[in-house]
Amino acid sequence: MSTLVAVLRAGDGAVQFANAALENTLGLSRRTLEGADFASFLTDPALLRTALTGVRNRDFAALRYEAGLKRLHQDPVPVHVNVAGAEQAGDILVELWPIEQQARQEREERLLDQAQAHKELIRNLAHEIKNPLGGIRGAAQLLEMELESRELTEYAQVIIHEADRLQGLVDRLLAPHRHPHRVGDVNIHEVCERVRSLVLLEYPQGLEVRRDYDTSIPEFRADRAQLIQAVLNIVQNAAQALSERIAADAAVITLHTRVVRQATFGRKRYRLALELRVIDNGPGVPDAIKERIFYPLVSGRDGGSGLGLTLAQTFVQQHHGLIECDSVPGCTDFRILIPLP
């Protein structure tokens, strides 16, 4: 939703003008709104009438408060209301911002800032670890060749094994920054089908992967391998969280694709965007990590590297997109948004 705007007649609060965003939210045409008492569209009309009186009497230049905006055949939407005198004498400007939209934008901006900070930290840290790690492994190999005791040799092999494990972790951290962006025409449903087949090979029993596709979505320019990896990481995370339901033959993951119009994310507004959602019926993301699931090395399960979602977010952001997550017990919904041409 964009900012909702109404210009009211100061005398009686009648609507003189309503923008398209307000029309769409209320489900009423501009013609229907013109001349109507705008206070009647709010859950507490008296608050707006008091504000209009205050602006009219010049008790204050502007007043801001929270209210509920009624919608046709829907529940009211919580909004921030700002009431101020308009430039034209005798009119009052009312602006409304949906609270959910504002909170979402703030969350998106926080995610983008965090992702950028994490990217720089990871890259610098990985490079700092890489050089001494090679030295440790080389020294352990030389030590292994010199040692005669089998027991001591095993200790050297442990050092080599752990150095290799850490090297693999470092390589994964650096992977998004090493490989060039290979862009071509991509069909998002080919990506989804590839991920679906890979996951069902890993979980042939007890897991259902449902399709809910909008087949009209056009091809777009993207790195196919990166998108497959991003979606695969999310779906594999979901499957791992569904282990108990898989054992009970009741696990469901849904791949849902749609086109979103006039979408705002990543501090920009796009005419069209791809919305790809991965929805599962698992236990949900633990509350302790819900706000940190895209942080590197944060995992909700024992033995997890905590890199899957971090890399998925990085790959999607390289396509100027964003991943969001809403999770409650019984339903976890990862939402990928990518601009379309």
If you had to describe this structure to a student in words, what would you say it looks like?
The chain has 341 residues and is α+β, with helices and mostly antiparallel strands. The chain folds into 3 domains: 4-102, PAS domain (Beta-Lactamase, 2-Layer Sandwich), CATH 3.30.450; 104-178; 184-339, Heat Shock Protein 90 (2-Layer Sandwich). Helices cover 43% and strands 28% of the residues. It has helices at 20-26, 30-33, 45-56, 99-146, 150-178, 188-202, 224-241, 243-247, 308-317, and strands at 4-9, 15-18, 62-71, 74-85, 91-98, 184-186, 207-212, 220-222, 251-265, 268-280, 322-328, 331-339. It has a 5-stranded antiparallel β-sheet with strand order 2-1-5-4-3. The protein is elongated, with a radius of gyration of 27 Å. The two termini are 20 Å apart. The model has no long low-confidence stretch (mean pLDDT 84). Pfam families: HATPase_c, HisKA. Keywords: ATP-binding, Kinase, Methyltransferase, Nucleotide-binding, Phosphoprotein, Transferase, Two-component regulatory system. Its EC number is 2.7.13.3. It is an enzyme of class 2 (transferase).
Gist of the model:
The protein is built from nine helices and twelve strands.
Set down the secondary structure blueprint:
Blueprint: E1 4-9, E2 15-18, H1 20-26, H2 30-33, H3 45-56, E3 62-71, E4 74-85, E5 91-98, H4 99-146, H5 150-178, E6 184-186, H6 188-202, E7 207-212, E8 220-222, H7 224-241, H8 243-247, E9 251-265, E10 268-280, H9 308-317, E11 322-328, E12 331-339
Parallel strand pairs: 7-9
Antiparallel strand pairs: 1-2, 1-5, 3-4, 4-5, 6-8, 9-10, 10-12, 11-12
Domain Histidine kinase: 124-341
EC number: 2.7.13.3
Keywords: ATP-binding, Kinase, Methyltransferase, Nucleotide-binding, Phosphoprotein, Transferase, Two-component regulatory system
